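Q: Convert this sequence to structure tokens.
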Amino acid sequence: MKDKEDSLFSPSSKTSRFLMRIRLFMQRLRSTIFRRRVVLLIVLAFLVAFHFLSEDGLSFLPSPSLFRWGSSKFVIILAVNQGGGVMHWKAPKEWALEKSSIANKKAYANRHGYDLAIQDMSIKKRYAHEWRESWEKVDVIRQTMKQYPKAEWFWWLDLHTFIMEPQISLERHVFNKIENTTYRTLSYYNPLNIPVDIPFVDPNHQINLVIPQDCGGFNLGSFFIRRSDWTDFLLDLWWDPVFYEQRHMQWEHKEQDALEHLYIGQPWIRSGTSFIPQRMINSFPPGACAEQAGDNRIFYDQKDRDFVVNMAGCEWGRNCFEEMEHFEKLSISLHAKKKWF
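A:
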């Protein structure tokens, strides 16, 4: 019996048990490393497929740029009335329209790593006594720039807009080629008949404001504005009491008319302003600009896969909910997952 006990605690027995433990540890380690390698390979394969599929425009997958964990360069400003209507309570269809518009912008911002500022426009009430309840756009832009001090470009979108091609980034669509995408001379398109030979327009000046034009002139339903000293001066002048106190009865489109007036009268504003073809960021549906029906510079074209639709003026005699629902369904169908047989 004693011999047996001595054998259990002999040096050779201890060494054997130690080596056995080492072998078990190594086996477990190899198994763990193998499993982790398999997981890593699966993740890498997914990311590769993820990249190429999303580049092909399959909207059921987010963009690879999602993995940038946010970008401070672009902020989308969406004007909504989340707490209720400004002058009346919102009907169910108005709530549904707002929900669709917000979801559309959230998905786009998340996909490309942009920031989204959802701004409650029910604050319009506070401007009513000053006759500038339609100038709130200027004040909201200034406040948003303070909220996002690192952002460079701000994209204003009205509620009645829908991003139809969510796979396309702003860099790819506009900003990587901004000098070629935009134009500064009104000889290209000039619905306001502004004199095209206005002096002191510097073509080498940095672009700070990018706006489309529609059949009635400048359109501020979808436009870009850059953070700069130039922009600070513009916003201060645009918000000047002279405009909203003395011109609120003459100017039907309020802040839009004010900007057009400034553009015509101020050379420095013309030098920092650039125009973009309407259908690049602000296509209209049938019914808007009805007097120019069929103008291929204005209206959404499914064959060309226009980037954004703006249901401009739908609250005046058209059905905003039906138009938004139509374009939402159309966008889904255009980006439906391909079936492979």
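The CA atoms of residues 39 and 161 lie 41 Å apart.
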